Amino acid sequence: MSASLNSTEARKETEKLRAEIERHNRLYYVEAAPEISDRDYDALLKRLEALEKQFPELAAPDSPTRRVGGEPLKGFENVRHAVPMISLANTYNKEELVEFDARVRKLLGGAPYSYVLEPKIDGVAISLRYENGLLVRAVTRGDGTTGDDVTVNVRTIKSIPLRLSDSPPDVLEVRGEVYMTRKGFAALNEERQEAGLEPFANPRNACAGSLKQLDPRIVASRPLDALFYGLGECSAVYETHEQMLSSLTQYAIRITPKYWPCDEIQEVLTQLDTLQNMRHDFPFEMDGGVIKVNQRDLYEKLGSTAKSPRWAVAYKYEPEQAETLLKEITIQIGRTGVLTPVAELEPVQLAGTVVKRATLHNEDEIKRKNIRVGDRVIVEKAGEIIPAVVRVVAEKRTGKEKPFDMQAACKALGINPVKVAGEVAWRIDDLHHPAMLKRWLTYFASRNGMDIEGLGESIVEQIVDAGLVKGPADLYDLKKQQLLGLEGFKEKKAQNLIAGIEASKSRPFDRILFALGIRHVGSGSARVLAQSFPDIEKLMTADIQTLEEIRDIGPVVGKSICDFFQTPANRKLIERLQAAGVNFAQTAKAESNEFAGLTFVLTGTMESMSRDEAGEQIRARGGSVTSSVSKNTSYVVAGEKAGSKLTKAEELGVKILDEAAFLKLLGGKPASKSKPGQGELF
Ligand code: IVH
Questions:
Q1: Cys-Cys with 526: which of 235, 254, 376, 513 at CB 3.0–4.6 Å?
Q2: Which tens digit of pLDDT belongs to each residue from 273-322?
Q3: What's 44's domain CATH number?
Q4: Pocket of ligand 1, candidates 290, 293, 296: which has the most ligand atoms within 8 Å of its Cβ, to mutate?
């Protein structure tokens, strides 16, 4: 192995590995069409790390191994922008857009021009500087003249190339927006609440807070991403905005997923409605549209005010809010015992769905917003998934509204709430309390967990109330006879449940790691752990340092894992589950081989699962997933808004499956969704 390599060979292999890893980063993060498994990717990265360790002279600032790591920062250095980062004039009003156009027309004195409309991403502005194709600096907007150097943090965002491809200009500053995906935001907030921390108010705050972290490893664990739409200093000239965008794509820089060239302002107004209708299809928060003159050579003529350019304007959509009645506040028990107050609402239409419940986060939040039972409240969707109560409509109070007492509400449920020092959340003191046990068993049996068919919330309730099960391990001792004594259980139903429990014993390793309910370990971290340790024994004996060295496992998660395995009751549980025959080790084989020899290409978006999840389902059946369509492709799975890959499949006569047909091929069983909070709040 590397011990026998000389330094020339090592250099060659290092370069090859770097190029290979960056290619996979691009396939995974930019094109969303991975070619290799996470495990194979990790193996490449590990090999590169080993080489760089053995031959320190080969270390390079643009190595993919440098994406995470590095020492925590003491503070951020101030950097002056070569070209100031000005902002945009905002309007909520279409007439003002027509006025904007009239001004442009007048200033240009007859020169032909057109527009480009782009989504306005609600994130944190960032400027990346590339010199000779290498990322040298990432700076926040700051006051527009100087910003914070957040390079180490930005390096952890994997869709941002450390090295550009395809002969970029010598100096290229690209400007865009770092954001947190809605899905990632919801998961992060759930984790924070579980940890007793204050949830972030919205994805933008969560993103800004993440970028300001002094420890890049924490930043690496946050679901950040970025898109680019403009330039700072640049040694190349692009005639139009569209040309600039297409060049950025060539250099492997991600641009907005959709934009509309428009010949005139009326077309912009129409497309703004198209954009608004798509608002919820974007994975990021989008709060409007940005209208830009397409011809970059006219920018100078149009000029700027001190604050904003005259060649662009932002049109903002009103935030989607609704007013309704808060009927009641109930208590929800989280999977690790956190008690969350939930607003039970008079159903109201909001952002395309009917909202019946909203999270109130914690007691402090209720006090801060002075929310009372019986209030008229304004609800808003903070992320895509969980609506929140923004404020009370105080002027509609009648005097009959009742203040909420968290402790009393818990006591009424027979729950004794305890406050952990330094946390805002209340927790249940007794993890064996039936309500807690029900919550845990439901989670244990859920699709992302042991996927026990037939064991949903109501059956869990029955078996716990009947005293048949006092913990997850008892499930494996259940006998058909015991179930037959329960209401609604006939021979067949009892047999199916026993069979479902039996089948769960051979789930892949990551499932039991998720099902154990270790704080901070969701399905993503469970997968990473299952790939990093051959079996539970190795994981249980890993120290915190070993855990922290793993990609995507930060200090908080690491500590939580160590704490979990050091608790005797948890060790006992694992022993019992092992004795029952539950799988606690990596299985190298695919779950089945029904797709052996079949190659799939995934394109567009599906409703029931992400492309990642679809890929997992295919690989679990022995099939493979590639990024480009050829005549050797067996199937192209085309979701909504499929693009050129679908066209190519049609040209080549490759079989095309829509989402329904794909689900059918999977055996009618959709992939488990990794949406947080499912089966919990909404
Ligand atoms: S162009 C010279 N395009 O919104 C200014 N900005 O409210 C160039 N933003 O400052 C900005 N999406 O931080 C532009 N597609 C987009 C954008 C965008 C989001 C941000 C940006 C800007 C702010 C204005």
A1: 513
A2: 999 989 888 888 888 999 999 999 999 999 998 788 999 999 998 778 89
A3: 1.10.287.610
A4: 290
